[in-house]
Write a structure and sequence with these properties.
The chain has seven helices and eleven strands. It is α/β, with parallel strands linked by helices. It folds into two domains: 163 residues, Spore Coat Polysaccharide Biosynthesis Protein SpsA, Chain A (Alpha-Beta Complex); 79 residues, no CATH class. A hairpin with a 5-residue loop joins strand 9 and strand 10.
Length: 251
């Protein structure tokens, strides 16, 4: 059966959800919005576009996405974030795949950052495995969740043509705030795994991160915004390892 459910998890996404749903509608046979009790108009907008809206407490990225997948009408699922928009070429290729037979697939993600498209610094092509059969794959991981085969046998996914447009951060301040949140979560995750960070790593890993993204991955070609992406990524690396050392000191 070549029927496709699109599943989106949300929390206060009224700024993004409409354009996400507008682009999803041409390829979806079923749309599920799984919301963590938004206090804005997210759910009202989703219902306007015919999405089935469910609400539940946030359980972490993987658990929440796996629960959301259970609400889908069909086994084949395209997982999207609320700030992601299917470009027209990507829509067309998805429709072709539906007509020929759905299969596990990835797409390239192009990020719109503070008013410009970031095409370097390791941010593009940002390959994301998102089309899958829920009987064969599920989400795993506490922070950077990934789809893993339930039977452990991962296969090479089909690469969809066209970009998924990712409307990430509307300001540098938003980027910094989100980075601080994920750096703390990453430090806690490493601490729980028993990993350590030497003072050398705290000092030099951020520098290496910046050099790698800005020079080796050509972040400088994206101008000022490319510089900010590299700089904040380096800061995130510092915060992660410095936070890990603080956790051990507190222990």
């Amino acid at each position: 059966m070549n029927k496709l459910s699109i599943v989106i998890i949300t929390l206060n996404e009224e700024r993004n959800i409409e354009k996400c749903l507008q682009a999803a509608a041409p390829v979806a046979d079923d749309i599920v919005v799984y919301d963590s009790y938004s206090t804005d108009a997210t759910c009202e907008i989703a219902k306007k576009y015919g999405a089935k809206v469910f609400q539940d407490q946030w359980k972490g990225y993987s658990s929440t996405k796996n629960e959301a997948n259970k609400k889908a009408q069909y086994d084949w699922i395209l997982s999207l974030d609320a700030d992601e928009v299917l470009s027209k070429p990507l829509q067309d290729d998805l429709l072709k795949l539906k007509s020929s037979g759905l299969k596990t697939a990835s797409f390239k993600r192009l990020t719109y950052y503070c008013g410009t498209w970031i095409k370097h610094a390791g941010w593009y092509p940002d390959m994301k495995l998102r089309l899958f059969n829920r009987n064969e794959m599920q989400w795993e991981g506490l922070i950077h969740e990934e789809l893993k085969a339930i039977d452990g046998h991962q296969t090479m996914p089909y690469i969809l043509q066209g970009d998924c447009l990712h409307y990430s951060y509307y300001s540098v301040a938003e980027h910094i705030k989100q980075t601080e949140k994920f750096s703390k979560l990453s430090a806690m995750h490493l601490f729980e795994k028993g990993e350590h960070a030497s003072i050398v790593k705290v000092c030099f890993a951020p520098l290496f991160k910046f050099i790698q993204m800005y020079f080796f991955k050509l972040g400088f070609l994206d101008g000022f915004h490319g510089f900010m992406v590299c700089k904040i990524s380096a800061q995130a690396t510092y915060q992660k390892y410095a936070g890990l050392r603080k956790l051990y000191k507190a222990k």
